[in-house]
Design goal:
The protein is mainly alpha-helical and 206 residues long. 68% of the residues lie in helices and 8% in strands. It has helices at residues 4-32, 43-70, 76-97, 129-151, 160-182, 189-204; strands at 103-111, 117-123. A two-stranded antiparallel ribbon has the order 1-2. Strand 1 (103-111) and strand 2 form a beta hairpin. The radius of gyration is 20 Å and the shape is globular. The termini are far apart.
């Protein structure tokens, strides 16, 4: 008969994965409540809460795999849900940051052919919709390849490059949130530079 502590340890990694899924839902709900066009003053508190929720979710991502390997309790459920939770968190973050809540219309000072004022859409998060599409397309391709390789009995375990990609994107999101919060959702040149660098670096992570 296994010791009680062994039974407890066996469930901890999976519990952390489930917690990360719940935190992802909370994170997306928080970002969906932000509308910089309508009310910038209400954004900073929500941005800080989302920042900490994302960081806690990132910590669970580090812990669950390490604990599962250390305690030799890697399960099929854990492997599937860990990958799902990672993708849901990152994709959810980039999709929401590229959404209408993080953009606003700004007058350019020019006029249209009809003599009406011209407006440009500014993405204050630095994340454009096409970036979210590229990240989603990449994840769909990797998931399809993993299913094909593992279906034929091969091994498609994440390698160092893939882990670096995850780390870069996981760091980019909270930095963007913190920069927006510190700038009170009205980033100046320095904050804009940081935000754009993180958005582009996170998008280009392979």
């Amino acid at each position: 008969m296994p010791e009680p502590v062994t039974d407890f340890r066996r469930h901890v990694p999976n519990a952390l994965v489930v917690l990360r899924v719940a935190l992802t839902v909370a994170f997306v709900v928080l970002l969906s409540a932000i509308d910089l066009q309508r009310d910038r003053a209400a954004a900073p508190p929500l941005l800080w809460i989302a920042f900490w929720v994302f960081l806690v979710a990132g910590v669970t991502d580090i812990l669950d795999g390490k604990l599962a390997r250390r305690w030799q309790c890697v399960t099929r459920f854990g492997r599937i849900m860990d990958s799902f939770a990672d993708k849901a968190l990152i994709l959810g973050a980039f999709v929401m940051l590229a959404g209408p809540g993080f953009s606003l219309w700004s007058a350019t000072g020019g006029l249209t052919d009809r003599g009406e004022p011209q407006f440009d859409r500014l993405y204050l998060s630095g994340v454009y919709p096409w970036m979210a599409v590229l990240i989603l397309a990449r994840e769909l391709l990797i998931t399809s390849l993993r299913g094909l390789v593992e279906g034929d009995g091969g091994d498609f375990t994440a390698i160092g490059v893939g882990k670096i990609k995850m780390v870069v994107q996981t760091l980019a999101v909270p930095v963007i949130l913190a920069a927006l919060a510190l700038a009170h959702a009205d980033p100046g040149p320095i904050a804009k530079g940081v935000i754009l660098a993180c958005a582009w670096f996170g998008r280009r992570a392979k």
